[in-house]
Design goal:
single chain, alpha/beta, Rossmann fold, 2 domains
Amino acid sequence: MMTEKISGGRTTYGHIVGILMTDSQSPRIPGDPGHAETFSFPVIYEVLKGFPFDDLITIKKGHMDILLNRAKALEDKGVSLIVADCGLFGPFQEDMKKHLHVPFIGSALDMVPFLNRFLPPDRKVGIITGDTRLLKPAHFEASGIDLETICIAGMDNSSEFKKVVIDRSPELNIEKMRQGVVDAALTLSSNHLGAVVLECTNLISFRAEVQKALKVPVFDLVSLIEFYVSGLRLAPFHTTFI
């Protein structure tokens, strides 16, 4: 019987996904990538201290060193995948992955072209974002999105979203946030939807409510993470012969 050997070199082990978090103390609930109970597998976090959120909006890359340093810290801890906790990181994805040895996901928007590949041509992908004013053409271009194939809704009119996510209040009224997400989703109902992508990670906790309201499949960053991890945790098929 062969004895397996393992190598050391790190302090901790078993983390599958590393998540880069923007520097905020806003409350997070299961469903949000910033809440570890969202996942059925081990994740580990690094906080992007000193990284200006405005860089994600204006797509300035003067603080790439902060992103790379924190991503490298996760890589050194042995993760198999690194993701960013905000969909506005999409334009940074190409720069990041050039310097890493594991895959990097910058935005759930990357799912849109994939979904459009097999949706009927008369169906669109609905995108729900935190604030429609923050998404710039470059965010769509970075994910290879044809603007003719999508429709967009945002949480622009949700006072709870503004309070918690934009103004970073330490208190979250879950029901008010839930209603705001449903209200935003319903503005897409007049479109010929084939699927919905939640760009903003703060909305993922309410994906079931969006699915119920719109009656279409709903995807998000957690979906994308789970898809990748499912390829790392393959189990053999068991066939029963009678």
